[in-house]
Amino acid sequence: MGGILASMIDGLMVGSVYGLAAMGLSLIWGVMDVINLTHGAMIALGMFGMYLLFNAVAMNPYVLLLPLLALGLGLGILVYWMSVHLVVGRSQLMSLLSTFSVNMMVIGIGTALWSTSPYNVNFSLPGLTVGDYTFTGNHIAATTAAVIVALALEMFLYHTRPGKAIRAVADNREAAELMGISSTMVLTVSFGIGIALAMVSGALVSTLFPFTILSGAGYQLKSFVVTVLAGLGKPLGALVAGILLGLLEGTLTPFIAVSWIPLIEFGLFVVVLILFPRGIFGRATA
Amino acid sequence: MIRLKLAVVLALFLFAVVPALAQQVITIGFTVSKTGALNVDSLEQYRGFELWRDQLNATGGIKAAGKSYQIKFASYDDESNSKRVQQLYTRMILEDKADFLFSPYSSSLTATAAVVTEQYGKIMLTTGAAEEKTYKLGNHYLYQMFAPATQYLTPAIDALKSKDPSAAIAFVYEDAAFSVAVVNPAKAYAQQQGFNTAFSEAYAPNTTDFSALIDKVISSKASVLLGGGHYADGSTLARQLYGHKVQLKMVTLLVAPDSPQWVELGDAALGVMVPSQWEPQTAFKVQYGPSGVDFSKAYIAKYNTPPSYESAGGYASGLILQRAIEQAGGIDTGKVSAALNNTDIVTFYGRTKFSIAAGEHGLQVGHSLVLAQWQKDKTGKPVKQVVWPLTGKSADLQYPIKR
Amino acid sequence: MILKRPSFWLILVLAAVFAILPTRGQNAALREDLILVAVAITLVSNLNLLIGYTGYVNFGHIVFYGLGGYVGLYLVTERHWSLYLSALTAGVLVSLIALLFGLGILRLRGAYFALATVGVLVAVNAFVANFDPWGRSTGIYVSFDAYEPLGGPMKALWTTYYLIVGVMSLSLILSLFIKTSKFGLGLFAIREDEDAAIVLGVNATMYKAIVYSISAFLPAIAGALMFYKNGMIDPSIAFEYMLSLEGIVMLMLGGQGTVIGGALGAALYERLRSYLLTSPKLSNFHLVIAGGLLLVVVLFASGGLIGWLYQLWPGSKDVIE
Hints:
Chain B is an alpha/beta fold. Chain B is built from eleven helices and 15 strands. In chain B, helix 2 (39-58) packs across helix 10 (309-328) and helix 10 (309-328) crosses helix 11 (333-341). The longest helix of chain B is centred in the first third of the chain and has 21 residues, at 2-22. Chain C has a two-stranded antiparallel sheet with strand order 1-2. The mean pLDDT of chain C is 88. In chain C, helix 2 crosses helix 11 (241-254).
């Protein structure tokens, strides 16, 4: 029984990182109807960003999240202008492909710089031992950071003017423009925030497991699953859905071989999509 | 007068050039996993090849039937990817005109390379590849340097039996050709020796998060863990086992702990055991090639780090091929293959003999494994000691491990 | 009548070039290069049926190729069937499976469909990696004498090459055929405006499922043949997500919606990749270059190379389809 509980808690903690990762994707998708296929590459850049900063400055990694957030914002704005601005409003295929092309370029450059050999951020917080089971300090810290960032984003979207502007544009871009909101500014900033979130989640993952420039792809897939389950443009919902997904994984693993989990997850994903063609909490207007 | 001078110059020139023309080149092709999950282990294997080539070329190359052959490598990065292995081996055979091939590193990549080399009828010496199935598919030109996978965990289980016959064992291993080929026979052997398997599960290659598996190991109340795969997953597993403070009395992992890089794990590295194809402490009565001591010295001088058994396997592959070419008097595939079939020799690496029985051509039948363990030496530095078999040990087995 | 269209003869010429070029002088190295191009063209032209004609992006296209490889290799090694029968069975079986899946996921629109195809790819990959009869993560290996029925490995390599050239040509002809058929018209209608098409009586879900299934047939056969030639298959090389994505790049580069466009894009991209594969400094840059090319195409020339050709010389539209 203790084993199952421990596994569920482990799953919950990893799930919060899934959720954080998905929040960026969900925000961008919700605001500008763009499926950001650079998401995985940005998560991987977050991992490497943390690695480089940590090895350069030897500060507490959780403090380094702040400069990484700023970096992510800048990078996101750059990617937006490079590949998204010209295709917003055109068919979804175009934005899929344009963001995908940036993804390829980032992976290519990343592989050239860092190869595909595994990297580690060598930092360990003391863990919490309950009976036979130990919860590593890094996992606990990552969960805490994820929740804090999510709450901060929620506060931003609902209690600040820029946040409300973003939500307005997500709702109805034309109406928002009529109200005097510069949609280009809003789109740029939201994209930047979306990428910043991706990078922060990558940075947190780097403290948990070894990684390569290709490691972001797995989290991108999970982000899709989580976003579709949670519905678009609802960041806090994405966090909750991520935690639930992690919890599902944690609950299943004591009973079945771990290698079946991806099959169950994606099988579930496809089934949910078929039953709810616009997502479980999907909006009537795509 | 000028004509005479010209004639002398010409004669001297010809005198210098002609012997050089009599020198031939043997091209050996292989891929290295410079990048990807296998890069640590593969690089060590490559260094074995390289040291052999450099030493040999410095003394004039291979001398057979009056000719001398310089060794040239045609090698590419396979990125730890089987599709690239196939494309590159095809290229090395067709375009680089490789005379002989060495295998990539790892059983899986070697199996894919073997398909190509057998299709084109080329000799390949495999090293860094212990899985046996490849040699049971009806090959003609494969030669395995490593002792086969079925033997890997036998020393560990024997050692365990001598210390704690009632231990509960957990098998946690990579779901890939090599580890599966090791663990399945090991489970049967353990059962034969009266052990109870408390838990067994394979993880997908490239797994980085072992916490779920580790929780299961804890729940199973196992006191011994056997398994792993290669360096990337093995080192991560060891780190996370340590981070989760799992109470294990013995941890034996495949491949990973043999690498000199293992010390990077710090405290998580200690006490861990590894089945090894070769350790510097093992001393054989050498019939061909350098002694173990000379090999280690030359390796450390060139690379500033001690050799692992992958490096030893690489170097030994070169030695055995060299000897076969000398015996065959040339590089004709049929003659060299016959010479390899007849090989039964002891080098610094141990005894090498290939099976020529029908249905298992090339399987290694002369070589055996030892068990090594990381322990602190008198100065507190972590070192690898040979702990089994008892007749060849350099230190006592630590059981249970204290961490 | 398809025979009247110049593109048909263009395809035959292409097939002849592929067949004859390496045969003169038994150039095995050239054959190895060309077979990769032929496979790429096969995959891309079938992908075009869904992306170019119907307007639906399939990110998981490679799953047909991989499944075809598994079915084919399983039948050859475990059941000892002939290569021809195994490859054909692989094609039929995989397109049936695709039809079943298709009826489910093609109810989805646009990006949701695209994501579902990713889900299908990952789920199938995970399933096969756990499936014992197919060797789990280790996969299936052909024994070295499996090439005897075809006259030994050397002959088998040539035979499979010709077979794949045949499959490639069939893919291109199929592309042309559909384009000029009533079925194709229905697909184009769906691409232009699915709701309007439905109102006008096109059973969109059925059409989409059928084309999804058709687009699986020849890639599955190609998979069976290629993995037989390669002598082994495992999940990591059967279901390479990157290959699926590169297929999309090739299609966009050449010109989606056209018959020859896919072939052109595939040939160019494959040459680039081969060159970069063995160049030690540049081997990672093929992704960067490919990404850059795709970006340029998407932002400024969404018709690809063929689209650009059409703009330069409008008359070419009837000749090069």
